[in-house]
């Protein structure tokens, strides 16, 4: 069996993946071998795939992205808008897993 070659970690990979997105729904998705990350708004699917493979040493099968538009809220009668958030649902190869509670090496 060929040994899997680890991808080189580039500083740009740290800029692509902002944080893990931990909610009830993302926990339910993790049962289907997927992880949800908050990513940079300009990040593309190939960049996200390369960053996850390099940082966590896993094989990525697919990447789905969505942009969660910020809500308009009011504070003391003054309206403001929350920031837009781009999320990536990263599906991993069977047998691979990421523990988002431990962090990155």
Automatic annotation (TrEMBL):
The gene is rplW. Keywords: Ribonucleoprotein, Ribosomal protein, RNA-binding, rRNA-binding. GO terms for cellular component: ribonucleoprotein complex; ribosome. HAMAP family: Ribosomal_uL23_B (MF_01369_B). Coiled coil: none annotated. One of the early assembly proteins it binds 23S rRNA. One of the proteins that surrounds the polypeptide exit tunnel on the outside of the ribosome. Forms the main docking site for trigger factor binding to the ribosome. One of its GO terms (biological process) is translation. Belongs to the universal ribosomal protein uL23 family. This is Large ribosomal subunit protein uL23. It comes from the Bacteria. It comes from Sphingomonas baiyangensis. GO terms for molecular function: rRNA binding; structural constituent of ribosome. It holds the Pfam family Ribosomal_L23. Gene3D superfamilies: 3.30.70.330. PROSITE patterns: RIBOSOMAL_L23. Part of the 50S ribosomal subunit. Contacts protein L29, and trigger factor when it is bound to the ribosome.
């Amino acid at each position: 069996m060929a040994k899997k070659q680890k991808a080189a970690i580039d500083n740009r990979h740290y800029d692509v993946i902002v944080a893990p997105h931990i909610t009830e729904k993302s926990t339910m998705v993790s049962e289907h071998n997927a992880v949800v990350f908050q990513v940079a708004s300009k990040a593309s699917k190939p960049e996200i795939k390369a960053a996850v493979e390099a940082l966590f040493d896993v094989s990525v099968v697919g990447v789905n992205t969505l942009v969660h538009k910020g809500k308009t809220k009011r504070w003391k009668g003054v309206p403001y808008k929350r920031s837009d958030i781009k999320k990536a649902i990263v599906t991993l190869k069977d047998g691979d897993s990421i523990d988002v509670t431990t962090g990155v090496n």
